[in-house]
Write a structure and sequence with these properties.
The chain has about 425 residues and is of the alpha/beta class. It folds into four domains: about 130 residues, 2-Layer Sandwich (N Utilization Substance Protein A, Chain:P, domain 4), CATH 3.30.1480.10; about 60 residues, OB fold (Dihydrolipoamide Acetyltransferase, E2P); about 80 residues, GMP Synthetase, Chain A, domain 3 (2-Layer Sandwich); about 140 residues, GMP Synthetase, Chain A, domain 3, CATH 3.30.300.20. About 40% of the residues lie in helices and about 25% in strands. The strands form four sheets. The protein has a five-stranded mixed barrel with strand order 5-6-7-9-8. Strand 1 and strand 2 form a beta hairpin. Helix 2 runs antiparallel to helix 4, helix 5 packs antiparallel against helix 8 and helix 9 runs antiparallel to helix 11.
Amino acid sequence: MSKELFYLIDQIAREKGVSKEVLIEALSTALLSAAKKKLDGRENLKVEVDEDTFEIKLYEIKAVVDEVADENLEVALDVAREIDDTLVPGDEIYYPLEMQDFGRIAAQTAKQVIFQRVREAERDVIFNEYKDKVGRVVTGTVMRKEKNAFFINIGKTDAILYQRDSLPGENLKRGDIVKAIIEEIRSTSKGPAIIVSRTNNSFVGELFKMEVPEIAEGLVVIKDIVREPGERTKIAVYSTNPSVDPVGACVGMKGTRVQSIVRELRGERIDIIPWTDDLRMLIARALSPASIERVGIVEDEKSAMVVVDDQNLSIAIGKKGQNVRLAMKLTGWDIDIMSETDYSKLKMEEAESAFAEATGEAVPSAPKEGDAQAEEGSAPDDSDRQTEDDTDAAGEGISTSEEVKETIEEEAETPEDTQEE
């Protein structure tokens, strides 16, 4: 019987991933609990398990004394020496007991102890296996949904994907195969709880690492990722090898690499931006897919004014300001966007004001209601904050109000003619 029991232990160890030593210890503890129940709660009992001979032995431990006060705990010296003549008072002697007929209650107690220890050991195995995998992507099968959480089987256990951590509008069903990133592992009374997410910014980065070998090898580095889950992601990358195109590596042949990630993200748009230390160029690229005409910056305020042509204004701003909002997160700068038409009006007003001050003429009256958009534009007023190094993405400078003033003074025939114009 003991041999079959050890075979069963070996099978459980392989299936559950628990060491045999832990299971044998659990067996010993269970048998000891059952023996104590059978023998009226005696504490002087011991169980020994021999893995080589498959033998399980139960002993009663008694102290050797000259005069016995408690027969359950002590044994007389002359009786003990019949077993071992080297014993002296104070020694302990092990009396073997029969391990049979423990009774239904004792057997049930042993069963409960074994199951409890196996569950605890299995929880420890799961925790130790996944504690170092925080931040990695796992693939699993949706098993069920309870309240506001999906339970996803990832192998030995189920991970928890809360509804708030799934993509907006995503309706997962039983049997769906999904990927998610491990965010946290919590220890609970029911074992380790593995929390996963599909909205974490790092999830996109890990997907690129899985799809793009150049990123996994360190040839292409992800500088930063900003994201509005389910809508748009902007990822800035650069190459450590001049011969490797970071954007081309991420896109893949005919877009196969990035398309695979887009499918996993349920159609989320991805802008791959080549990182540069040139701040103006970075701001222009961050506003992709819009085409930028000019970029001016104010370093002290960490703000930038971007001029785009009228056709690209809505693209640069994005739906509900999404594109410019993500660009600001990616660059860390405040970005104001102005159309070419509004920018020209603003510059003309500044030029007229500067000319009037130089000639002593009255400053033109406030613009009419139709010109309110020029004043209420998101771009900062250059007359209030001077920008010495305004330039566009291609390196062309934005004319300052002083330059416009000098040009007008040189070309003007008379102050009156200029005002009429």
